[in-house]
Predict the 3D structure of the following.
Amino acid sequence: MTTRQQPLKDPYNIIITGVGGQGNVMASRVLSNMLVEKGLTVTIGETFGASQRGGSVMSHIRVSERGTWSPQIPRGQVDVVVTLEPIEAVRVLARYGNPSVRVLTNTRPIYPAGVIAGEADYPDLPTIKETLDKLAARTWFIDATDRAMAMGNPILGNIMMIGALSALDELPLDRDVFAAVLGRTLPEEKLDDNIRAFDLGVEMVNEAS
Amino acid sequence: MSYLTDSSEGTSRLVMGNEAIVRGALEAGVNVASGYPGTPSSEIVESFSNVASERNLYVEWSVNEKVALEVAAAASFAELRALCAMKQNGVNVASDFLLHLVGSGTRGGLVLVSCDDPGALSSVNEGESRYFARIMEMPLLEPGDFQEAKDMTRWAFDLSEELKQIVMLRSVTRMSHASGTVTFGSLPKPGGTARFKFDGFILDPDEGMIISAPVDWKHQQQQEKVKKAREIFETSRFNTYEGPERPELLLITSSACTLYSREALKVLGVEDRVGLLKLGTTWPLPPKLLSKHLASTDKVMIVEEVLPFLEENVKILAAERAAEIGIKTFYGKNDGLIPMAGELNPDLVIEALNSVLGLNYSAVSGEYEQSAQLSAFVGAPFRDQIFCPGCPHRASFFSIHNAIELDGRKGFVCGDIGCYSMAIRPTGFESLKTLHAMGSGAGVASGFGKLGQFGMDQPVLAVCGDSTFYHAVIPALVNAVHNRSNITLVVLDNSGTAMTGFQPHPGLDHNVLNEEVPAVDIAKICEAVGARVEIRDPFNLEETRRTINELMDDPRGVKVLILRQACALSPQRKHERKFTMSVDEELCLGEECGCGRFCTRIFRCPGLIWNKEKGKACIDDAICVGCGVCADICPQKAIKREEVA
């Protein structure tokens, strides 16, 4: 249980980024509904016309006690980046990054078509880590997709990332509010898997900290 | 029960802009909703369909936007309330009917919702629908946040009934597809009685015929309605001002740009220097309200997407009132301060304010920004949009491309709008050579197919999707047959309106309300108009390729090839895995093969990747959906498919 009632700052700006088809929109909805459940005002901006078509996708989430904010975060103003695919974090920081940003990265790459075709290089994980460490105040690298595949469903990786975000304790997020929000739409047998995934995310951040 | 029908007044919910519009309409007691799918508008009709039985609504996905508006208008003529939703270019399709509709006037409240897409985030144009309000002489509303999206929609029905005119509500992607907290109002009891009255005096708006003639008289009536709207808008609660009484600069804005502008002023800390006039009623402009604010300062900046619609209208008003309000200096699109192409964001407004106010704000140090940008340039390779793993379009275009290459006469494909528009990119082997409106592939091909008399001997192909076929291809097909144009039309039939989220279309045996309906057969239509028709499974690469070559060689007019395979994300295929795929590392010769990494270099399925360490192809199990097609492209037969038991 978190004791936190307010976000660390106001507005608190989150970017969830990844590749079309990874469940970016689902992750941003779940997270936002958890924050609304805690009595906060949330504005989400997202682009999902191309969401299933392998392009880079981003959700901007503005968390506030003071009302609605722009659905696009201004340059250099993101507080935490949750990235479902490692290089997408690097792409996001080019525009929205700042020296105090925190970055939570799923380590599983999805190769762009140009990389698959041999026209471009995909950096190895140590290089990506080095880049993100240089640009961010803190970083966490989590094998969410791999752990989720071991649980039988790669999409659970997104839930681990939400669990991981809650463990930073910068927002009033915890397992109870997660279960409350998901419990409204999911049947019980699916809920169990999701709560396990959430807990795993929390554990992985605690281990990495 | 959908939360959109939560009847407790005063609850606050996180809803998408499109859902806020739906809730507003439900609060207004809407009876009929229609539309044609198009991002970012599609969730509107979808959300209505989810509550249709509960709220006694009639909801339909119409064959195209013109028919959708006609369907909604009929409800209005029968004294019901109706809403019609579409994306920006849909308004072009509906515009011919719209021109006559604004002439005839309406009865029950009728609201046209256009969701524009500044920046073309999911479009192949960034058309402006706002100008239609001016040329059609009808009122235009633009919500400035999510609460307004709901409240304004609710009010739009009252306004429409007061004026006896259709009202246009314009949203944008960052409103329709963004979400925010909205406090709900009360819901009326479901109801509505339909009765079309036509026996009264011919010019009686309530009981006469509903016609746009006599044009002279009707047009004057229409303009009286615009004047009345202008009066009403003078005191609308959707036009608000925040800032000092005599601002150094007046910023006039509307729609999502309101949120960008407000944030820009906060970031710069200039809320005490700059006044923010947010307009919700953007056509016709309320002159007294505008004059009052224009008189308060010498400098005016206008922030809007995309073209200078508001800017032009404010300038006309300022010129007319110059004697009273004084001469102004304007900042906006015409002086190049704010871009006239692409979408806006808080940063572009900050930049413009930096320049006008002589500020020097930057969000982060130049050093950090440079380092972050360089890192992305070097470390984040470009991610092109691609067909999904298992997408039938990849297979279809693979065969189309190979057939054209084998044919050797420089054949080409004319395209239109759908997921398959991406065939302009390497993911579709750059097969499309023209790309325009819905149905334009067939229409343009019909024209190309008649250029033989000028020496053109290139084979002409066109592609369209199944939903597009019904929307706008049928007239082009009839045209091509009747005029003996020599073309091959490939219908990429993936069993639904895939790009926008599987909305049903006339080819399916169920509608948006999940009722059983007669399916209109594409093959039978094509045969009936006199085209030669073939049907293939695009996953059978060789047979598809051979058929295309044969059709290209057939000189007798219009040939239609229907490539039938459901979208990989469709409900029937989404969780299906037909094959388990693997690469036999003994058989794969890697870089030594001589195929030049054909499988990954050309086919570009994200589920089939290159293992750098091993120097061989491999399957990414997290991504592959097991369609099995790639097994047929490897010259070494190293890619194996095994049927899932």
About this structure: The beta strands of chain A are 12-19, 41-46, 56-64, 80-83, 102-106, 138-142. The first helix of chain A runs from residue 24 to 37.
